[in-house]
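[09:14] KT: can someone run the structure on this one? pasting the chain below
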Amino acid sequence: MKLKPNIYENGIDYTLSGDCYLPELKLPEETRPIGRWGRLHREYLKNSRPLLYNELLLSGRLQTILADLDEQAAERCRLIVRQMAQAEGITEEIKARDPVRWVQAMNSIRSRAEEIVKAELICC
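[09:31] RB: done, structure tokens below
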């Protein structure tokens, strides 16, 4: 079989480069942004699970998985913050009456919620 400068074989495009045909690999483009949680998970995969990271990257699924995880983690964090604030009695009334106390309480709640999300979804 005589090969042309550009060929299509087995579902993959090949281009002649010197004496060799090289596959033209294209990863699907993900349009959703990857926020804080997605970036944290990407770093976790790179450092702690390099084989999985490379498999996801080369299969073209990494961006989609990171975008999905980012959305799930952000929603989970919001839910935990709401539930903890309710359980601890941190209300809009406290915010109006004593804003410094409210900010301190909400910062503490947000910090604890982020640690929970990190343990449950990001570093697992």
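[09:33] KT: thanks! Residues 34-119 form one domain.
[09:34] RB: yep, looked fine to me
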